[in-house]
Specification:
This protein has helices at residues 2-14, 19-35, 39-53, 57-70. By secondary structure, the protein is an all-alpha fold.
Length: 71
């Protein structure tokens, strides 16, 4: 999972101009952080998705993950 985090952060750095790639990477990054027990970083990834997508499918996925983290 640590390698996945590194790879996803690389996508963020190198392909940030590609909105869909970045968004998918942020969602996956959040999941990796959850697996590692780093819920604050997971929450930050999901909140970034919501901030940029507000009401589309990506935002709905991120909001569902945020809600799950609050339990």
């Amino acid at each position: 999972t640590g390698d996945a985090v590194t790879a996803l952060l690389r996508v963020k750095a190198e392909y940030g101009a590609f909105d869909e790639w970045l968004t998918r990477a942020l969602l996956s990054l959040g999941s990796c952080y959850e697996t590692l027990g780093q819920n604050d970083l997971a929450r930050e990834s999901y909140q970034t998705v919501v901030a940029f997508h507000q009401d589309d499918d990506f935002a709905m996925q991120a909001k569902a993950k945020l809600k799950k983290l609050k339990r």
